[in-house]
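Worked example

This section walks through a single chain of length 221. The input is the sequence exactly as stored; nothing has been trimmed or padded.
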Amino acid sequence: MTRIIVYTGLSLPFEEAKEILDSTDEVEVIYKRPIKRGDLGLDLKENPDIIAIIDGVFHQNSAVGHKEILEAINKGVKVYGASSMGALRASELDSLGMVGVGYCYRQYATGEIESDDDVAVMLDSDTLEALSVPLISMKYVFTKAVEENILSESEKDELLSIAKSEFYPKRNYANALAKSDLENDKKGELVNFIRETGDIKKRDAEELLHLLNDELSCRKD
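Given that input, the structure is written out below as tokens.
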């Protein structure tokens, strides 16, 4: 049986994750809360074949270390990363065997962003509900809005500047729009576009789980 451990719950709620990748007669999928320092050492005792890191803690506890991930890789575990902490660590360790997936990973891997602050969010530790919006999601949405001629480059830059100036727990679209010089009609259009576009971190998490599902299907064939 193939055993997979997935650290998520924030970028993608467990129930939604299970709709994409769930346990079967041949596969055991174990979903766990965002990873922190020390979790991998304990969880390797469960003998996983695949580890998927999506969410992890940044400031609440010590973040998962590079050595912990490399230890798993050296033991033959295939380690993937996407969306948040997973994207950050994959960009740092892709040359050593960690597999990165999605937009957020590519942003780090190409040097477009460098700080963990770009994917950090404030969360409810009980429900794992995000209480703020990560800067990388705002950048993605505002860039797409320029492509759709909803925003100009200067308007996008203004909104991102406002967002960057906020401490990450206080970042959200409402604050950025309220402090901007955008006219009310454009704010309304942008709000609708934000709702339609969704969260890029969630989409990256879904992409990773679909990739694992596809790889497992190929193994059966």
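What to look for: The chain has two domains: 2-120+201-220, 135-199.
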